[in-house]
Each structure stands twice: as C-alpha cells, then as structure tokens.
Amino acid sequence: MTETERAVDDAERAREQGGDERRLRLPSGWPRPHWSRIRRLVPDELGVLVVLGLLIAGIGIPYPDFLDTDNLLTTAHNSVYISLMACGMVFALAMREVDLSVGGTYAMCLVVGALLVRDGMAPWLAVPVILLTGIAAGVFNALVTTLLALPSFIVTLGTLMLFRGVGLALADGKQITDLPLNDSFFTLAGGDAGGVPFALWVLIAVVVVLTVVLTRTRFGARVRAIGSNPDAAEFSGIPVVRTRVQALALSGLTTACAAALALAFYGAGDPTLGQGYELQAIAACIIGGTPLAGGRGSVVGAVAGAMILSVVASGLVFFEVPINWTSFATGGVILVAVAADSALRRSGRRRR
After folding, report:
1. Which pLDDT value is given to residue 321?
2. DSSP state of 132
C-alpha cells in the first residue's frame, strides 16, 4: 500500500470512528454488520438523484409538457456549462480549495476562441488553444495561492475580475461575431448528435472520466487525503503543492471545455457571459454532496446538483413565476439542500 493510499485509509477510518457503533439486532448466529458498512452500500449520490427525480415528477404531473423529450433535453443542455465547471470544482473543494474564478475564466476562454476563429484559425484548431488558456488560468491561480500563501478563496476572487477584465479588453467590450457558422465545428459541436445535444455527450464523457480519476487514481486519492487532513497528508509525503496545481488546473480545463461548447452553440463570443456561474457551480457541488470541509466529493452528484438548478429555473417558467424570482428560488433550493445534507450527516453520526 502506498503512502497516499494509507493516508486516505487513515482519514476515512478516523471519520468513521466517531464512537461505538450500534449494531443491528439480528438473530443469533447472523452476521452483524456495522451501520457504516450498510451505509457504504448506498451510493452517496442516491439522495440528490432521488430529489432530482421527484422535482421533475412534481413539475411534470401538473404540466405534462414539461416531460416532453425536447423540453427535458433543452433543460439538460442548459445545465451543461455549469455542470462542466462543477465537475472540476469538485476536485478543488474536495481538497479544501475554492475556485471562484471560473466565471471569468469562462468568459476569457470564450473570447480567446472567438477572436482566433474570426482572425482565420480553423475552429477545431482553436479548441486546444481554448483548453490551454483555461489550464493556464488554473495554474496561475494555484501558483499565486502557493507563492503568496493566501487562501484560494481570496486569490480566485481577484482573478475572477482579472480574467473577466482580460476578456472584456480583448473583445473591446463588444460581442465577437462574423464567425464561419457553416463550419463543422458549429454545426456538429453546436448541434445534435443522435438526437441529443452534442454538449450532453461531452458532459457524459467528462463525468465518466473524472469519476474514475477521483475514485480510482492516485491523484484522486491525494486530493481526498489532503482534504481530509492537510497536515497529515503533508507529513506522509503527499505533494500538496503539486496536487493543488493539478486540481486548480483541472478546474480551469473543465471551464475551458464549457467555453468551447458555448462558442459552438452560440456562434459568437460574448465577454459578458458567465456572470454568477462560479456561485452556481459551487452550489451544484454542495447540493451534490461535496462539502466545503473537503475530504470527499462526487462528480455525478455535482452534475445532478446543476441539473436540479436548471430544472428549478425551467419549472418556474411553467408555473408562470416572474423571472425576477429565479434567484430567490435558486437560493432557497441551495439552503434546503445544504440543510438536508447537514441533517443526514448528523443522523448518520448518531447511528454509529
């Protein structure tokens, strides 16, 4: 067993040993599993997925049109950009870091890609540049955080405005248009594939890959170990600085991926897009079961959380609620989700 795996095991064991665990009352001779073992049989994402299903049913019963396939696909597609940001944000939050710059990174990458395409670069060749721009933004966040010994919350709050300012300056404060919309990049990446928006296929692939990375790779184990106990992780030899750089670079990469898909879908580069996306991405992670305290996370749960936010926004339209109440409803969903998550955790600790 490596030092990383041993640190993760120690952290998880300490998290579970909150006192003497109560045992199930079973007939004599039967195995007597611990509550913690039973709890492991239930996926962490089950709760948020059930809430998502109940929410869809609650809107679809009085308004059957909501359950129309096209409407559900549109609602899911509307959540793709936040979902991709949340996928990367999970890794930052799991190791007690926060990336508030994703909204600015998104706008900057979108503008960079639009400028390159407008100036003659083939759209498909512009995609790697967009992705590298996002990675560079994430690495910059990590280096400033490390060199200045500042919380990532403060650093990325500053780079949020910095990156957005770069995007506005490059675009001269205007929307970048006159792009070759007949190119396959816009018709394919911005359209449908097999009757499903292309962006949704990309999201599914990202979720599968990052779920494996978080739960089955050494990098994912390091992220969780650092989030569980940073001091113990550093003492055990885990490269904390390098892992921080990798986690924030990954957050920038998934944000840049969202920007590339947005460029293909909208067919223009708008430097004002992405405002408030950083808070929605964090909210999606929290709703999906990734705590700010670190130590664990769920990519699937984060995407489900983003879907819940999108379903709520879409449902308000069917209930004819004024658009001004959208933020109110979103905030209410976040508070309820956080409160429910806290209550479930307290209940779980009492059972042990």
Report:
1. 83
2. H
- pTM here? 0.86
Tokens of 273: 């897009």
Concatenated DSSP letters of 156-213 = HHHHHHHHHHHHHHHTTTS-B----TTSHIIIIITSEETTEEHHHHHHHHHHHHHHHH
Is the alpha carbon torsion for 322, 325, 327, 331 positive or negative? negative
Task: Of 33-37, 106-110, 295-299, 339-343, give the lowest mean pLDDT range.
Answer: 33-37
| Burial class of 12 by CB neighbour count within 10 A (0 to 12, 13 to 18, 19+) | middle
197-218 pLDDT per residue, tens? 999 999 999 999 999 999 999 9
- Between CA 212 and CA 42 the distance in angstroms is 18
Query: What does residue 78 show for φ and ψ, rounded to 5 degrees?
Result: -65, -20
Instruction: Collect all residues with Cβ–Cβ distance below 8 Å to 264 and sequence separation of at least 6.
Output: 123, 185, 186, 188, 189, 190, 198, 199
Rounded to whole angstroms, the Cα distance separating 342 from 330 reads: 18
Written in H, E and C, the secondary structure of the chain is CCHHHHHHHHHHHHHHCCCCCCECCCCCCCCCCEHHHHHHCCCCCHHHHHHHHHHHHHHHCCCHHHHCHHHHHHHHHHCHHHHHHHHHHHHHHHCCCCCCCHHHHHHHHHHHHHHHHHCCCCHHHHHHHHHHHHHHHHHHHHHHHHHCCCCHHHHHHHHHHHHHHHHHHHCCCCCECCCCCCCHHHHHHCCEECCEEHHHHHHHHHHHHHHHHHHHCHHHHHHHHHHHCHHHHHHCCCCHHHHHHHHHHHHHHHHHHHHHHHHHHHCCECCCCCCCHHHHHHHHHHHCCCCCCCCCCCHHHHHHHHHHHHHHHHHHHHCCCCHHHHHHHHHHHHHHHHHHHHHHHHHHHHHC
Instruction: Report the amino acid identity of residue 92.
Output: A
CA distance 320 to 148: 49
